[in-house]
Amino acid sequence: MDTDPDSSGAQRIGGATSLRGPSKDTPVELPGLPHLRSGKVRDLYEVDDDHLLLVASDRVSTYDVVHPTPIPDKGRVLTGISAFWFAHLADVVPNHLVSTDVDAFPSAAQPYRDQLRGRAMLVRRVEVVPFECVVRGYLAGSGWREYQEGGAVCGVDLPEGLQEASELPEPIFTPATKAADGEHDENVPFEAMVDALGSGLATTLRELSIALYRRGRDHARDQGVILADTKFEFGLLRDRVVLADEVMTPDSSRYWPADTWEPGSNPPSYDKQFVRDYATSTGWTKAPPAPALPPDVVMATRDKYAEVYERITGRSFEALLRGELA
User: Fold this and answer.
1) How many Å apart are CA 126 and CA 238, to the nearest integer?
2) 185-224 pLDDT, tens per residue?
3) Could you say which of 45, 144, 150, 197 is the most buried, measured as most Cβ atoms within 10 Å of its Cβ?
4) 136 beta partners
């Protein structure tokens, strides 16, 4: 996928830095909560042997490089949408989320509750499965380019005559390895998952991923939004498969407004496309440092995140800013 997701999670779920700062190397100080690691967007802290605190900052990255300019309230949107989907999908698969209510967080986190409100999740530690579980329901991005070259996407043959943004006859599962920070995930055939995880677990993850995508696609469609593709991360908790990290956020998914979708076009996305377009227009080489963002790009991106939050959850963005998660 080309959504530039922040690969974060439990033992690897999450990342840590300042809530709004650009750097992965200077985590915010939360005395009493040891900082474990930093991702492009998320900050990860240890609560106890069984629990972690996953904090979503307002940082924004393109091409795996963090920009020095944050997108205000982006972290709240990511947390709010994830919390919504964790609840909405709980009957399909259990998840690692314990609470988003900062007032119910452990005592060590209470001095920072105003800082964390609306952007933090208390989660269970899990053993992270080392694959991104990508599901594609529409032909877009790298999938479209691959299809043009050989009529297949990640080794999955597709019918002839499809156009860019065409809906696929059935969703397809195209896993990827989890890359180290600063590197790109690598698409792999399903057989590579089987070799690494065993047939039973690999098949379970494929079936769960497609079931979760279908549920998300159908809900989004009812809200006037197309979920073109997304990626899931899973973990094992006492040998039980659980859904982890973020779920169907604008950072890990490709959302399109349904009223602008048309096969043969490249629909506008509810994500950081404004940031990508601006960064490209500057002549940036995609190597660090990333360029600073002007106010109009920042606000246009914030508006897109706010709009998709309201569409997907049915809750107001203003309520989210008050710390009321869907």
Assistant:
1) 8
2) 789 999 999 999 999 999 999 999 999 999 999 999 999 9
3) 45
4) 172, 229
Can you give the pLDDT at residue 12? 33
pLDDT, tens only, 92-133: 999 999 999 999 999 999 999 998 999 999 999 999 999 999
Cα separations (Å) of 91 from 41, 211, 236, 242? 28, 11, 17, 12
* The CATH number, out of the four listed (3.40.50.720, 3.40.50.2300, 3.30.200.20, 3.30.450.40), of the domain defined by the range 35-125: 3.30.200.20
CA atoms 154, 156, 157, 162: torsion sign:
negative
165, 266 Cβ separation under 8 angstroms:
yes
> What 3-state class would DSSP assign to 163?
coil
What pTM does this model have?
Answer: 0.90
At 173 the pLDDT is 98
Q: Are strands 225-237 and 156-157 parallel, antiparallel or unpaired?
A: unpaired
Q: How far apart are CA 282 and CA 246, in angstroms?
A: 31
Per-residue pLDDT reduced to its tens digit, 247-270:
999 999 999 999 999 999 999 999
Q: Tell me which of 3.30.470.20, 3.40.50.720, 2.60.120.10, 1.10.10.10 is the CATH number of domain 128-272.
A: 3.30.470.20
Do strands 120-124 and 127-128 pair parallel, antiparallel, or not at all (unpaired)? unpaired
Could you tell me if 64 and 2 are in contact, meaning their C-beta atoms sit under 8 angstroms apart?
no
**Burial of residue 305, with CB atoms counted within 10 A of its CB: 0-12 exposed, 13-18 middle, 19 or more buried:** buried
Whether the Cβ atoms of residue 302 and residue 72 lie closer than 8 Å to each other = yes
Per-residue pLDDT reduced to its tens digit, 4-17:
433 333 333 333 23
